[in-house]
Every structure is written in C-alpha cells, then in structure tokens.
Design goal:
Elements (H helix, E strand, L loop, with lengths): L1 H19 L6 E27 L2 E30 L7 E23 L4 E24 L1
Antiparallel strand pairs: 1-2, 2-4, 3-4
C-alpha cells in the first residue's frame, strides 16, 4: 500500500509541475512594408504593409517621424519577421528604434523596432532615393 501511495504522489507531483509550465503563446509572422520618408532635420514618412500570420493576410498602415539629422528622401521596401505576436492585433502600436543609417541611390537598409506589446519587427530591404539620417525615430502601425 505504501508503494502505491508513493507512486500516486509522484504522478500527482509530475502532473502539478507540468501544469505550471505553459507553452509559449508567442508567434512569428512574416511582414512586408513599403515606407517612404523625406525631410530636412525632421523626417516624416508613411506607408503600407501586410502581416501574414497563420496563413492569413492582415493589411496595415505605417506612419512615422524622426527628429535629428535627416536630409533627403527615400523609399524602402522592407521584408522580415514580426516576433512575439499574441495574435494579429498585437502588431499595432508605437514602435521605437535608435539608430543611424543612410542610403544613396539604391542601397540597403535594416531596422529592428519594438512596441509596448513586446512585438519586435526585424526588417530589411532595398532603399531607393538619396537620404542620410542619424535620428531617433518612431513608427506607428495600425491594422486596416
């Protein structure tokens, strides 16, 4: 009987520990964005994109501004990943990044942004135009 009680206790302990560990609900989606930016000192930009998550497409708009050293204009076609998603709505919000970059004619750019929901956008793509910037920027994403 004692052996049976010990086995039941071990099974109960194992089930209890398994119940404490929950699987991660964070997902990764694919993102494509076309963003156009221009300015002199204050840069302003906007664009559109699409999040692909679980085989569904979720279109969104992007708007942003940077304050600092910005001269010129460029259009960037970003592609990449959205990490730590807890559903499509978690991509919405204000994103921030601190960085420096530049493009002359056809160059390449990359950026990593994070919002208050913990979503991280890792994006890269070719730039077309002439822009040099060293600014603190912010981008806002809204589902359509």
């Amino acid at each position: 009987m004692r052996r049976f009680s010990l086995s039941v206790a071990l099974i109960a302990l194992a089930v209890g520990v398994a119940g404490l560990s929950t699987p991660s609900r964070a997902e990764t989606g694919q993102v494509a964005v076309v963003f156009t930016k221009g300015g002199f000192i204050v840069g302003v930009g906007g664009g559109e994109g699409v999040l692909v998550l679980r085989g569904k497409r979720y279109p969104f708009t992007v708007s942003g501004m940077s304050v600092g050293f910005t001269i010129g204009a460029s259009t960037t076609k970003f592609v990449g990943r959205a990490l730590n998603l807890k559903g499509p709505a978690s991509i919405e919000g204000a994103y921030s990044a601190v960085g420096a970059g530049g493009a002359v004619a056809a160059g390449a750019g990359s950026v990593q942004l994070r919002n208050a929901n913990g979503v991280i956008l890792q994006l890269s793509g070719p730039r077309v135009g002439a822009e040099v910037s060293a600014a603190v920027g912010g981008v806002t994403v809204r589902l359509k």
